[in-house]
């Protein structure tokens, strides 16, 4: 990552994720055995809007549970964060979860939402600027799984915010590496991170298999996006959304399964799919509170407070980076 623009009115900084990167990653993933498409590619503008709709389904408990924790404990977070902080949000999405925090914080210096979904982020930042005209809002279009270094010449207390259990999309070792990089970036501050908890497999299964089929559309948007951006000719109706909870690995596994033997052209290259062959599209790891605190500690954070809802569906952790 490079230093962001100083002006609150500036356009989002484009750090990565151009069309060539996308097509290359798509071809690389589909040449692997088993085939895969990295989950960050769910999020073009269409995917980001579909994710907003997932958050509204009755089965998808994480969003409403985390939002209620953030609203209920906003004053405690603000006390821990302190005045004059700069907030960096990883994977800001619709920019809804930052609001309780911005409303509670004392004189926040800046808000820097980072997201890979560039056009969508631009709209979210414009809306937030209208609602928080006195705040410097500096969106950054970037892939947070890469380099997180960014100079802090004014030594402002820097705070990370990482809601949505997006950290669960990393495999545990990748999550540890992300936390290690963010502990360095946030030195002298801390990270407020939302983490989905291990729970009844039936509740988890339903959350990724909503009755209205929005999660299925979100998953299939990977194929529709390839058709839009990589000259592919996927027939989305010949692939099925398949998601389940693997209790041994404590993760949701998401796939697109080919419903027939078929050939697909992508960027001028032919790919064969056997009947029943799967493309892996997402992991979503679930943690116990203790396991997540141990992971954060192994990455250099000092785990401090943790908040859970009464049903112990979701957790929000405050990790200090001394
Ligand atoms: C699960 S959604 C969560 C959105 C929001 N934070 C929430 O809690 O509702 C993940 C968000 O992270 C973004 N994202 C996913 N992978 C990313 C990556 N590697 N780099 C930057 N943003 C990413 C997506 O565009 C999306 O907005």
In brief, what are we looking at here?
With 322 residues, the chain is of the alpha/beta class.
Give a written overview of the molecule:
The strands form 3 sheets. Strands 1, 3, 4, 5, 6, 7, 8, 14 and 15 form a 9-stranded mixed sheet that branches. Strands 2-13-10-9 form a 4-stranded mixed sheet. The chain is globular. The protein has 322 residues and is an alpha/beta fold. It contains 10 helices and 15 strands. The protein has helices at residues 19-31, 45-55, 61-72, 74-81, 98-104, 118-131, 172-185, 201-207, 214-229, 289-298, and strands at 13-14, 35-36, 86-90, 110-115, 136-137, 140-141, 158-162, 190-196, 239-246, 251-258, 262-266, 269-273, 278-285, 302-308, 314-320. S-adenosylmethionine binds next to α2 and β4.
Task: Please render the helix and strand layout as text.
Blueprint: E1 13-14, H1 19-31, E2 35-36, H2 45-55, H3 61-72, H4 74-81, E3 86-90, H5 98-104, E4 110-115, H6 118-131, E5 136-137, E6 140-141, E7 158-162, H7 172-185, E8 190-196, H8 201-207, H9 214-229, E9 239-246, E10 251-258, E11 262-266, E12 269-273, E13 278-285, H10 289-298, E14 302-308, E15 314-320
Parallel strand pairs: 1-6, 2-13, 3-4, 3-7, 4-5, 4-6, 7-8
Antiparallel strand pairs: 8-15, 9-10, 10-13, 11-12, 14-15
Helix pairs in contact: 2-9, 4-5
The chain binds S-adenosylmethionine (SAM).
């Amino acid at each position: 990552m490079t230093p962001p623009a100083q002006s609150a009115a500036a356009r989002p900084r484009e750090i990565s994720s151009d069309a060539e990167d996308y097509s290359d990653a798509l071809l690389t993933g589909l040449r692997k055995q088993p085939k895969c498409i990295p989950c960050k590619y769910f999020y073009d503008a269409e995917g980001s809007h579909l994710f907003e709709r997932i958050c509204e389904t009755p089965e998808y408990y994480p969003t409403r549970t985390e939002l209620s924790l953030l609203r209920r404990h906003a004053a405690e977070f603000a006390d821990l964060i302190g005045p004059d902080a700069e907030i960096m949000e990883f994977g800001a999405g619709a920019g809804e979860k930052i609001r309780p925090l911005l409303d509670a914080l004392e004189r926040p210096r800046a808000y820097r939402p980072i997201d890979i979904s560039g056009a969508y982020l631009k709209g979210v930042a414009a809306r937030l600027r209208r609602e928080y005209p006195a705040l410097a809002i500096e969106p950054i279009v970037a892939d947070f799984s890469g380099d997180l270094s960014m100079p802090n010449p004014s030594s402002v207390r820097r705070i990370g915010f990482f809601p949505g259990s997006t950290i669960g999309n990393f495999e545990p070792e990748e999550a540890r590496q992300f936390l290690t990089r963010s502990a360095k970036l946030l030195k002298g501050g801390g990270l407020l991170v939302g983490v989905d908890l291990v729970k009844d497999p039936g509740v988890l299964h339903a959350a990724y298999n909503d009755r209205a089929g929005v999660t299925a559309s979100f998953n299939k948007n990977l194929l529709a996006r390839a058709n839009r951006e990589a000259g592919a000719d996927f027939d989305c109706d010949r692939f099925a959304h398949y998601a389940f909870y693997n209790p041994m690995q404590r993760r949701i596994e998401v796939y697109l399964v080919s419903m027939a033997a078929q050939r697909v052209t992508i960027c001028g290259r032919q790919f064969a799919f056997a009947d029943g062959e799967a493309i892996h599209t997402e992991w979503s790891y679930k943690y116990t509170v203790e396991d997540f605190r141990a992971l954060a500690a192994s990455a250099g954070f000092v785990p401090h407070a943790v908040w859970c809802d009464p049903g112990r569906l979701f957790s929000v952790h405050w990790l200090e980076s001394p």
